[in-house]
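Slide 14.
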Amino acid sequence: MTPYESPTAPQTPPLLGEALTPWQMYFSLEGRITRADYWFSGVFALLVLGLVLTALLRIGGLSTEKAEGVVNVLLAWPAIAVSAKRWHDRDRSGWWVLVNMLPVVGWLWGLVDNGFMRGSLQSNRYGEPPRAPAGLL
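Slide 15: predicted structure.
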């Protein structure tokens, strides 16, 4: 290394496969994610964020109904983006997100298919399979 080259940090493997930036995870409809990423980023993180935002809006003086409405609108796109990536891992179109609109059965179907069913192991039309450490989902 010459004095004019910038130093490089050692590359460490990400905790849950290949890490996506928050922008890619919550605003892009492209790519695939593992079941673990779906549960952590799509269910747990958005649920916690929704609860915190609702509490802050309630403290700010909004009624419960208005606060929940604002939070639902703000978190709709990130939830759709995460779910679309999971459908891609199952080798299905992101349009399958619309199955959640079916009363009662839809959200249950989406939850089971996205959260419990294994994705395709090979490359598919949506990209390479997401990498997860051995023994993890």
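Speaker note: Residues 2 and 91 are 47 Å apart (CA to CA).
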